[in-house]
Each structure stands twice: as C-alpha cells, then as structure tokens.
Amino acid sequence: MLRQLRLCLALLLAALALAAPAHAQGPDIAAIVAKLGGKISFPDTEAVIAELAATGDPAAERPLRALAAGQLVWRDGDEAVFIATSGAEPTPLLDPVTGADAGTAPKDQLNKIRIKNSIRTAVDDALAGLTLRADDPAMRRRAAENLFAAADPEGIDVLDAALAAETDANVRAVMEQARAAAILKSDRPGADKEAAVTTLTARGDRPALNALTAFAAAAPAGEAQEAAARGAAQIEQTIALWGQAQNIWYGLSLGSVLLLAAIGLAITFGVMGVINMAHGEMVMLGAYTTFVVQEAIRTQVPWLFEWSLAIALPLAFLVSGSVGLVMERGLIRFLYGRPLETLLATFGVSLILQQLVRTIFGPTNREVGNPDWMSGAFQFGQMAITWNRLWIIVFALTVFAALLFALNRTPMGLQMRAVTQNRKMASAMGIRTPFVDAMTFALGSGIAGIAGVALSQIDNVSPDLGGSYIIDSFMVVVFGGVGNLWGTLVGAMTLGIVNKFLEPYAGAVLGKIVVLVLIILFIQKRPRGLFAQKGRFVDA
Amino acid sequence: MFKPTQWIRSAVAALMVASTTLSGALAQDAAKPTGEPIKVGVLHSLSGTMAISETTLKDVMLMLIEEQNAKGGLLGRPLEPVVVDPASDWPLFAEQMRTLVSSDKVDVVFCCWTSVSRKSILPVAEELNTVVFYPVQYEGEESSKNIFYTGAAPNQQAIPAVDYLMEEGVERWVLEGTDYVYPRTTNKILEAYLQSKGVAPEDIRVNYTPFGFSDWQTEVAAIKEFGSAGKKTAVVSTVNGDANVPFYKELGNQGVAATDIPVVAFSVGEEELAGIDTAPLVGHLAAWNYFMSVDTPENKAFIDKWHAFIKNDKRVTNDPMEAHYIGFNMWVKAVEKAGTTDPDAVIAALPGIEVPNLTGGISKMLPNHHITKPVLIGEINAEGQFDVVYETDGLVEGDAWSDFLPESKMLTADWTDPVNCGNYNTETKTCGGATAPATSN
Amino acid sequence: MILARFLGPRVWLLVAALLAAAVLVPLSNLWLPADHPLHVPSHIVPLLGKYVCYALLALALDLVWGHVGILSLGHGAFFALGGYAMGMYLMRQIGPRGVYGNPVLPDFMVFLNWGELPWFWHGFDQFWFAALMVVLVPGLLAFVFGWFAFRSRVTGVYLSIITQALTYALLLAFFRNDMGFGGNNGLTDFKDILGFPIQAGTTRAALFAASCVALALGVLLVGAVTRSKLGSLMTAVRDAESRTRFIGWRPEYVKLFAFTVSAVMAGIAGALYVPQVGIINPGEFAPVNSIEVVVWAAIGGRGTILGPVVGALLVASSKSYFTAVAPDTWLFVLGGLFVFVTLFLPRGIIGTIDHGWTGWRERLKASRAAERGAGAPPAAPPQSPGDLPSPAE
Fold this sequence. Notes:
A: 3 domains; three-stranded antiparallel beta sheet; two-stranded antiparallel ribbon; flat; disordered C terminus; C: mainly alpha; 15 helices; 68% helix; globular; Urea ABC transporter permease subunit UrtB (chain A)
C-alpha cells in the first residue's frame, strides 16, 4: 500500500517534470540532502527522499544513488553529508550533489547513513519517476518495468508522454505493456481494454498472466473480459511448456554437475577398477586450489580476478593429479587385483586428506568468488538461465570430449586402454604397465581436481565438500556401466533430469529417494549398468 | 592361548588408563590460582559436518577460561578445560558426556550445536546431574532441570523477525527450511502466528529440503514464481548450515534481490557469510540476538580479545559465541554466589543471575532456564557484516513452550520453588504435561 | 565333544571369554568397591556394551563378506532398522512420562501435531512384538532385496553400490519428519525397558550381559554354519561362483540364506545397541557407518570369526580413546591405521597371526620331513579359516 502511494507521488512529480522540464529556480537540492546529516530515523530518511523526488531535478540522482548504495555519510561535528566511495584511512570525500572532491576525513568521524530495503525501494521509485526520460535506455526500461508492476491508471498520461518521445523499440514495448496493465485497471472504454489484453497476452509471462487473471475475474462479462480469460489460458499453456523446458534445463545442469563429479571416478574406478573412496577429496583439493589462487590474486594482482578460474584449472589438475600419483605409487599399486582393499586404504586416505585440509585451512567454509562472467542470469523465452550453470554444462561437456579424445586418439590413451583390457599382453608388447597405471590414476585424479574448480562456483568450499559427492558419483558410474565413459555421460544426464522432474511433485527428499530406488531396480534388470561392457566375462 | 578373564581385565584396564592419561595430559597449564582445578567440559564437534560451526565455540570457551584464570580463577581455584571431539556423531555425544562427568569429573559442560546432540546428552545430563549450557537458537518445547538455554527460543528470534517484515508490508510468505526438528517446529509456530494475524493459508508456502542440499535451481525458481503474484513476498529461511551457501549463490544468480523478495534467515550469521561473496546478497536479512557490527564498548573489547586470542584479526564473532560468553559469565557468578561447584547449589543459584551481554543490555537467567535477550534484525552489507535495522525495545524473555502451539500454550517451565518442574500446566495447575493430570514428581 | 571338535577350540574360547565377560564385568561393576583395581566404573559398562554390539554387527557382515564374498556396504541399514524397532518399543514405554504427558503419542508427534498414532507404531508397546520386529524387519528387507539382487546375478561392485544406495535411501527417508520416526532427532529420552529403569546400574549390567550372550550365540551360529556342509558351499560360492553353478548348485539361495541371517544378526545388534547408547537416529544409516563396519572386519581379518570381533572392539575403542585424547589429530591416526593394515596386514590382524602360525608350522613340518629324508609326502595344511585364499572379486 505504502509503495503504491509512493509510486503515485513519484508519478505525479514525473508528470510535473515532463510538463516543465527546465526549472529556472528549483528548491535547493543541497539543502535537502543536508537534512540527512545527524542521527535520523528511517521514516525521516524516506521523507527526505520524497522531498528530493518532488524537486523533479535530475541533480537529485547522484545523492539518491549514493544513498541506496550505502555510500552516503555524515561527519561528526558539523553533520555535513558527503559521498564516501572507499573505506580507506583517511577517507576521501565527495560532494553529494556535484560529485566534486571535498577533501578527506578520519574514518572514525564518519557515520554511514543507515538504510534498509524499504529505503532502497523508495530510492528506486523516486529514480523511476526521475528517469523515465533518462539517457540510458536500461534505466528507462527499469522505470517502465516499475510502472508495469504498479499498474496505476494515473500513470497512463505519463506513459503516453514518454512513449511519444521514446525511440528504443525494447523500451517502447515495455512502456506499452505498462500502459496496457494500467488500462486494464482504469475505466477506459472496452476497445482500449481489448487492445490492452492483446498487448499483455503477447508479453506472455507470469506478471502478465496475473494482470489478465485479475482482470478476467473482476471485470464485467464482455468481449474484453472473454479475451482476457482466453489470453490467460493461452499464457498458462505456454508457461507450462516453458516449465517443462526449464525442468529439462535444470536436469541437464544437475546432470553436468554429476558428470563432473563422476568423470574422474569413471577412470579410476571404471577403467582401473580401484574403488577410490578418496575421489571426493581430490575434488575438494581442486576447490581449495581455486581458493588459494583467488586469494593470491586478491592480494597480489587484483585485476587478474576475472581470469582466476582459468589460472586455477591447470593448477588444480596438477595438485590433484600429483596427489593421485603419490597415492598410486605409494599405496594402490600394491593392491591391484584386490579392489575391495583399495576401498579400505583409500577410505583411510580420504580421512587423512580431510583432516589435513581442516588443519591447514580451518574447518569453516572458505570464500571462492564468482567472476562476473559466472554471475547473474539471462532470460531465454520464459526461462531464466544462470550463467554459472550454463558455463558448467559447457565445461563438463568439454572435459568429457577432451577425455574421450585423450583415451581414443592419443598414444597414451591407447596404452591405457591396452593395459586395462589385458595387462599381460600389453606388458608383453613392451608397454611399461606400472607407468601407465600411475598416469591413468593421476589423470583420473587430476580431472577430479578440475571438477573441483567448477564445483567451487556453486557449492561450499569446506573439508566436507568431497564427501557430499562421493556417493552420487558411484551411483552415476555404476548406473552408466563401469568402464564406459559414454555410460557415465548418459547416466549422469538421466539421473539429473529424472531428479529434476520428480522434485516439483515429490519434493527434493522424496525425489532423491525415488531415484535411488529406481537405480536399485534398474540394476536388477541390467546387472552391469546401462552400457554394459561387451565381452566374454565369467565372474567379475 | 589367553584366559578370557585376562582379556576382559586388560580391556578394562586399557580403558581406565585411557581416561587417566586424558585428565593428566590436559592438566599441564597450571595458572596463578592454586588448589584443585575446577574442570570445565567443552563438548563441541571438531570434525565431521558440524565442525564448521562448533570449532569456533570450542575456541571461544578456551579464551573465556584463559581470561578467567588470568583474573584469578574461580573460588581461588584455577579453571581447567577438558576438550573432546564428539565428531558430529550423536551417540558419541552421549558417550563422551558420560565420560566427561564420570571419569574426568567436570563440574559444568558447554555443549552442542544441533538439537539432536542436545537431545542425545539430555538423559545423561539428568542422570548424572550435570550443569549444561547450550548456546544455540533452538525450537523450544523443552525444559530440563540441568540444561541452561542461552540461545534464542522461537519467540526471541522468529516472531519478532516476522513482525518486522509485516511492518515492512510483506503479505505473502515462503517458509523454507531444512527437514529437521528446528525448522519444522519454528515453521509450525510461524504458520499459526501468521494465520492469527490474518494471513490466508494460500499466501503461505512451506517447503523442506534435505541436509547439505546443493541444487537450489528448482526451489529458487518456485520462490520467484510464488513471489510474482502481486503481493509483497518474503522468505523466512531456517535452512541449516552447509545448504545456505548454494542457496544464496542461486538467489544471487537468479536475480532475487532483497528489495523484491527479502530472505530473513535464522541460521545465517557472520561465520556463514564468511564463505560467500556477499555483494549480490546485500539487503537480505537475519534475525539474531547479537551482531558483530553492534557498536558497544563491551563488544569492541570482546572482538579485540578474540582477535588477540585466535591470532587472526579477520575472524568474525557471532551469536552463539556471545551466548557462550553470557553463559560462562552466568555460571561463574552462580558458582561464586553458591560458593561451590556442587550442581544442585549452582542450579539453584542460576535463576536470577544477571550479567551484561555484548549489545549493551543486562541478560538475566529466568526460572525456566532461558535468558532475556534483545532481538536484532540486520541486513547483510557488502562487507559480509550485518547492519542493524531493527531492535526490540527492551529485552525479550525466552519462552520454553510456545504460546502458538495448541499442545504447549498452557505449559510453562519454572525450576524454582514451589513449582519446580519443566512442564507445568497452568490450566490443571500440575506438573506433567498437557494431557494427563499426572502425578507430580 | 563332537560339537567341540567340529567348531574348533578358538570358537569355544571366544564363547567362553564372552560368557565370562557377561558375568564378571557386571559383578565387578556392581559389587566391587569403586577404588578396587578391578572395579569397572559405571560409565564404562554401556561403553563396553556398545563395542560388543558393534562386534556382533561386524560378525554379521563377515558372514556375508568373509564367507560368501558379498561385500555389503549397507549393513548399517539392518543394524539401524533393528535399533529403530527397539527404539519404538522404548518410546512407547515412556507413556505419560513424556514432557506433554500424552499417554499414547511420543513427544515429537505431539508437538508436530500428529493426531493419532500412525499404523506402523501399533503393537510396539508389547515387548514380544518389538522383539519380533527386530528380527523380522531387517530379515524381510534383506530377503526381498537379496531375492531380487541375487536372482538377477548382481555381483561384485554393482552389488556393493546398490546396498549403499539402499542404506542411503533409508537414511534420506528416515530423515524426513513426515515418516513418523522422529526425523533427524530420532528416538531418545528412554525411561525403562521391560519395567526396569534404563539408567539403573543393574539394567545396564544386564544389557551388557545380554549383548555378550548375543555375540556368543552369533559366534556359535557363524561357527556352526561355516563348518557345516553349507559352509563349504558358501566357500565355493565365494571363490568360484560360476563353477559352483555349473556343477548344479544354486548360488543365489546360498547367498540369500547368508544375507538374510546376517541381516537378522545385524538387527539384533542394533536392538541391543539402542538402550545402551540411549538414542537412535537416522545417522546410523549413513553410508560411512556401513563402510566403517567393513573396515572393522577387514582390520580384524575377514573370514576368521575372531577377526571381525577383535577388529570392531579395537577400532571402536580406539576411536573413543583418540577422540578424547587427541581431538584435533585422531582422524590422522584412524586413517593411517586403515592404510597401514591394508598395506602390511592384508589378511587383517587375526588372519596374519594365523598365517604366520600355519606358515611356521608348515616350515617346521617341512624341515622335519627333510630330516626324515625324501619320499615323505608333504603335510596337508590344517583346515583353519585363515588358510582360505582371499575372496576373489
């Protein structure tokens, strides 16, 4: 309710501003901003914002933005208000209205003007009124979206005026939709409303659906009302379709995470037959490598931060790979042919690695930042696609392809396959089997390490990181079929998608239980997984 | 080969040697105060899933004990910490509780984080009559003679938070929690409370996810959808521990801004935020009884001492640490008042004890073994700290039994005479719970 | 006497040791003065009882792993199910003494608004029913699971992983509060068992004695089964399943029998464990717990009867010891122990002792034979379980 009132006010003022764009002698912005100095309450702050908006003066934009960003401060003593963009000692100050340099002040003499969400919203609304004719199209679009959400008949005139001046097609579209939403709530004639219903139906998202359903429920029967009901039904259908697409996307995304976690295991366990319980810890080491790399970059070369993941990838591969190499040489090579004993020994190693990381880095989560290209989302139809998930899918598939290439097209890959298929024969052909074993295990561990780099972007970086993926990884490899990389790919994607389709109906917990039961049943049907290795086997 | 009796004997002997070496090993650092040391049990997980939260509490206890020893100990005797690792394994909590009391002869135990670990040690504490301090916000619906709850009860955290959001115009609610008893009970109380305030049932969405849940895409999308219905929506999150980081990352990535759909969390503090880039989360809320950013001389001194003790001035402080600070000081005062560490005397002395908290008030131990605390609501800022945006007028008294659940609204706890029980029924005027006019104990 | 020779001296020694412990530990705890050097302190008794339950669990696992070659990574599930059955009985025994004073509903149901007792809680107020369920639920689950898995010839690693999936699914299910088993908190705050207060020293002592007797019976059972003709068949299935099938046996029934019996033993272990530790919660289903059981059996020496018992006692007690003495470094010690045993004692402790013993005897016989001159046939190695080759996978 409060928000609506504020918007109305902002709109009214914007209308004023549009009517008389150039103030000869407006109220003094600096004088109003100065009222923020000293300890003031939240309602008083809001009053000042309203007052600033009422000036209709674009000069109010700078102090308003600084306020919303939490950069507005006041100085002890004279209670003068400044913008402080850094927390350095002494803090450089800027004039809140002109942005000019205003000297410095000791940090402990400055007091941040307290803000909260409702203040930020008030600032947004004030800015929307001020910025419907801003230079930046993105800002105008945001202002129009705000008006769409408000759907206030009072705003129609403002929008008409703005539309007349608008050149950007995208912004025009949003303004027209905002106007349509407002018209549905107004007492305009039926024809206008029908046109509005058409505009909203074309917009086709959930807010449009809400506007249409609300209108269809409230309006008297008539052509516009029927059109709205039809439009709502149509949008609902599209949204349902997009919902399925979204589910598939989520499933692929979960599948790619499972694939990343499992693909290293597909080598150490699937190809070599080592039940590597320390696999999860290899993933964890990769994630901690990312943390160390980012920490070094933060303190030494901050401008490299966007590249931190690219730098961490080879390092993580090396770190986890060499730990894998040491494990193979020092432990696992004594246990070939006794896979269940590798389980024991690697379980011990996993406990040791976990505690080692806990001792070095502490038990708490460590912060791994997302570079800008991994943050945020974009809209694809009615789906929101987050960049980090998109990149992780791309990354998982790239790793998969690279691995496939390495195993099938390189001499080392040939030797690896030869040794795992028939060790004695390979040895007789002159292949140094111990060397190949070591390299294979290091490769599998290294890939787990680079999976850790990716997982650090979406999950906790803590000593327990590995433990949360190990069971799922084994399920994927076994479900797909031990010893078959394609099986791992298909297995991971299938499990991901099934899980995500079950989740909306059964809930996350029950969904996962159902998936586990399905795996158990599936293994009864195909005791060697999805892609069973062909060949003449007696007992495994 | 060997005689069976010998085998048993040596096993038992080995265990007894184990326990004596334990007490010997830890008895080294004798401080200025002389005499028989008073032993303080510190029972917090140092490994396993809960190590992430509980290790800090162990460190803060060591700091408090060191400080007390520097002040001359207690009753002229030095304090001696006995630290063990229950490894996030709930039966191990009970086992080590028993060993601490029976074998190490500790006089008080500072224990636990999760509800299940508290439930696990509770029968042992009652059987062996030990004083236990529990420092974490919890679901209430419990009052034991031996346990002192220095964390928040639901009425000291959840209800003021919801009140604040209602004032801010929120009309539609998502109650998002991890599937265990604290979120279940809290959400039950909140549902009843919201409906009593006129919120329609279709404006409340309740959802539970498993522990350590990491794939939040579907749920965050559902929250966005629920929030697009035209009414101001907020998420009340009782999501626990590790699941929070991926949850907040997904919220940030899917663009759920605090100005659109604010999330108020009851389990996210400074320590949890230390693992996240908080820039996309600015404006989301948390309700606690203490924030590191609170500007009081007591808090500043505490933070300085903590940084000096842990030798790292980047480490944060949080609400359960303050709870241990309050609890420890209350115990010290109670022992001084009673003149002995005898559990019965200390338990009798504790209600009414007042000590300063770190937010500028005086917290008091109530007869129901809960304490008075202020309720603060903070918004996450870009530095990973909280800016306080709301504070209750005075201190709020912890309520063991919720007034918003039909089964417990007639119950109160009072461990002082003449009532002296944890589940006093104010309707039937008897102890023994809600339904049965039971035999008094 | 025949039975004595049939089972071998070691089984009898172990049984005698257990029975002696069942008598002596309670006696020493209850009647010796506290300062007597042989007095077992009260807090040690339930601890020892816990270890004995673990030993029974390890023995159960070893029946399928050491003797039939099925590596189950889900035996914790049967243990926990047995524990839950007992826990439900103990919950019902609380009656109106719960904090809400509800005579029928356990506390967690009261405050989560359960109107009435769910159907699967009925009957658990009777001990005989609970005891039946302790045996029946794990046994039935194992039977059904094994029926499908063994008939479909799911073997080796695949079987191990689906047993892990089983316990993981149960873990998630029992975590759900909607299931009506108390969710994450599980069942706790028990008051009495069969009318005896559960906190009393005598009850504790009796529970310890019962655990020892159960373990002794388990040792006898495993000993008898493995030394019988069925035991030979089990060995055959373990070492060459296909060959056994080709000569006309049905390995799936042998496996099914062992798996079901083993699950029942695990369930009984769980049922005895719960009143002694005072809590059962879904954490017992955690896959890591089941792996720990495998570790016990492996460290003690699988397929040796004595081995799993020793392994469980050793690892569990060292965990208790090190978590208290070295809270920051105990995982290094435990992890290092696992690595050490796999590398240097691949047959486990008991297996290595046996191996060393028989190897020494063989060498002795061989040298005597050499003294006596050529022509004497080499002595056949004695039939001790330690001689069996390691299970092939």
